[in-house]
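User: My collaborator sent over this chain with a note saying "see what the structure looks like." That's all I know about it. Can you take a look?
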Amino acid sequence: MKESKKNRIIISGGGTGGHIFPALSIANALKVTDPELDILFVGALGRMEMEKVPAAGYRIVGLPIMGFQRKLTLQNLVVLYKLMISLIKARKIIRTFKPSVVIGVGGYASGPVLRIANSMGIPTLIQEQNSYAGVTNKLLAKNVQKICVAYEGMDKYFPSEKIILTGNPVRQDLTITETKKSEAFNYFNLQPNKQTLLILGGSLGARTINRSILIKYKQLSGTGIQVIWQTGSIYYDQIKESIKSFTDNNIQIHAFISRMDLAFAAADLVISRAGAGTISELCIVAKPVILVPSPNVAEDHQTKNAMALVKKDAALFVSDAEAPNKLVSLALDTINNPELLKNLSGNIEKLALFDSAKTIAEEVLKLRDSKQ
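Assistant: Without extra context I'll predict from the sequence alone. Here is the result:
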């Protein structure tokens, strides 16, 4: 029988779905591997994880941590104060919970928690979702034991001997079969003999992608191409109002798509932002994609994610600024080019990494067992 403290793991970080979903996937994989594990999340107060993690059935405690402003401002004095308080609170959490391993998934909270864990001699592991390492993970890399990454070439940022290429955890229901394709056509009321374009504006919405489609709606309408357009909840009503005078039964508009597995199964081409999680899913399902990176993310990491695929002829790229003029035309040219679709699909499939959450969980448990 293991000592009880050997069955305690802390997972820290969050701030966005791109951090939270991998964290929850790792936690679930850990519980499958060792059901006796006691997992505690540490997040940032007021951020998304404080709601999403309890909804997934895990405990979470919050730190008053926040990000630095990139310009000189008195606000950064508040940030420094909250950082000191967060370090003190992180030390108290770790002393009380006594974890055997601490995992960082990026985001504000992972910094103080992993820094304290390292100072206390507790094994640590970080997971970097993007092709360009975040500031927090770059700072932590020197003292952690393992670094799980989703892209090759990450030794530009991290010590090569610590890197493990695991990929990003993705949804577990993405495998596409002929049965799932049939289910997808029925679910979305699509015709199997027509090409289908999937447009992902995000769960809340991607303004430029939505605007680019709306501007060229007449060009898209009447082509006979079937369109599944996820606008996001923020833009849904506005877009519905804008196109109410047009009738095209081939174009479906959704605020949110709950069965993304079926949307991917139906799609011949995808238009999407370039978040790390979405790209990992597109690799798994081997779907041709036009990436339109968001410019509103730290260190422009979505552009770097996209270019990692473009360099391998595994995706097409349209900048946010060029999208209103170029996106729809490129999508129509691409979806009507079977050879290009086949090449993009084959190249992106080569980048797929399966069972990422399980692989990361196994590395975590190796660290735990190495301390026994």
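A starting point for your reply to your collaborator: The radius of gyration is 22 Å.
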